[in-house]
């Protein structure tokens, strides 16, 4: 059993070091994908010296903008780089720099060693009557044009213009769309399928380029339309607390420690050592 962690990050170098040290194991390889806008805030030599484990930095990293296709492109670039590096692994877990394990690395390795090619990706069919209700079950994310990577456009104005004039995109034929968590754990074979699918389906990729928050749909859609869909377990293995009306998860603090220690999840998000580092101290006591 060998695990790869792909960590997408843009802030808190010291928190990244703590995350790597909490994950490290002889059977673990860690790839760090730094948002190019913030690359100068990370001292790679310091990170390597402070972690003493198998850490590699993604070379083809790009600037990333929240909500835009650059989030997807950044992860795609990293997956292709990992795949073409001939790195051997059984599972790859996508993490952010503000995630943290709430189980030991040995526990996590054992968990995946008996997974039997299960794909862990939280997904629901779009439109969904229970999810993203403010966006008509998610269909509005697809049927209108978005380009959050273009910071010069006022998207509220253009979205209202499209809605008022009933201007909609033509959806892809013969595709069932899925949404869900942007964080997942997938087998080597599934990652290989995704990389090859991306390389051979420009029209599919280009369609999602102009959708809203494509990172919460494109991987889910690829996997759920693939032969791997029969092995999907609809969970992302993370403890996350969402706050009603807010688009990002709650920052977890020491007040949440009991919930984390009794959770059956493997990871949790999100943490920020500038807000509360004590909770990571407690988690380290528990898992290390």
From TrEMBL:
Record localization: Endoplasmic reticulum membrane; Golgi apparatus membrane
Chief site of localization: endoplasmic reticulum
GO cellular component terms listed in the entry, alphabetical order: membrane
InterPro entries listed in its UniProt record: Glyco_trans_14, XYLT
Topology of the protein relative to the lipid bilayer: Single-pass type II membrane protein
Keyword Lipid metabolism: no
A single GO molecular function term of this UniProt record: protein xylosyltransferase activity
Keywords linked to the UniProt accession: Disulfide bond, Endoplasmic reticulum, Glycoprotein, Glycosyltransferase, Golgi apparatus, Membrane, Metal-binding, Signal-anchor, Transferase, Transmembrane, Transmembrane helix
Keyword Transmembrane helix: yes
GO biological process: chondroitin sulfate proteoglycan biosynthetic process; heparan sulfate proteoglycan biosynthetic process
Protein name according to UniProt: Peptide O-xylosyltransferase
């Amino acid at each position: 059993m060998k695990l790869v962690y792909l960590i997408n990050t843009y802030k808190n170098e010291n928190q990244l070091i703590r995350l790597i040290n909490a994950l490290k194991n002889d059977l673990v390889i860690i790839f760090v994908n730094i948002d190019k806008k913030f690359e100068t805030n990370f001292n790679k030599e310091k990170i390597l010296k402070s972690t003493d484990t198998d850490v590699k930095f993604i070379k083809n990293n790009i600037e990333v903008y929240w909500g835009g296709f650059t989030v997807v492109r950044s992860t795609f670039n990293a997956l292709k780089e990992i795949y073409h590096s001939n790195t051997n692994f059984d599972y790859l877990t996508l993490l952010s720099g503000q995630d943290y394990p709430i189980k030991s690395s040995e526990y996590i390795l054992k968990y995946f060693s008996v997974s039997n090619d299960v794909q862990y990706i939280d997904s629901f069919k779009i439109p969904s009557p229970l999810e993203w209700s403010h966006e008509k079950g998610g269909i509005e994310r697809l049927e209108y044009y978005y380009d959050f990577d273009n910071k010069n456009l006022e998207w509220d104005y253009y979205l209202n213009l499209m809605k008022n004039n009933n201007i909609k995109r033509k959806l892809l034929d013969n595709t069932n769309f899925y949404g869900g968590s942007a964080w997942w754990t997938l087998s080597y074979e599934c990652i290989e399928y995704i990389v090859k699918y991306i390389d051979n389906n420009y029209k599919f990729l280009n369609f999602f380029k102009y959708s809203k928050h494509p990172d919460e749909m494109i991987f889910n859609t690829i996997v759920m339309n693939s032969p791997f869909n029969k092995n999907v377990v609809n969970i992302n293995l993370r403890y996350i607390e969402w706050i009603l009306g807010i688009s990002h998860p709650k920052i977890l603090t020491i007040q949440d420690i009991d919930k984390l220690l009794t959770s059956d999840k493997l990871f949790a998000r999100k943490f920020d050592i500038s807000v509360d580092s004590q909770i990571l101290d407690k988690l380290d006591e528990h898992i290390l």
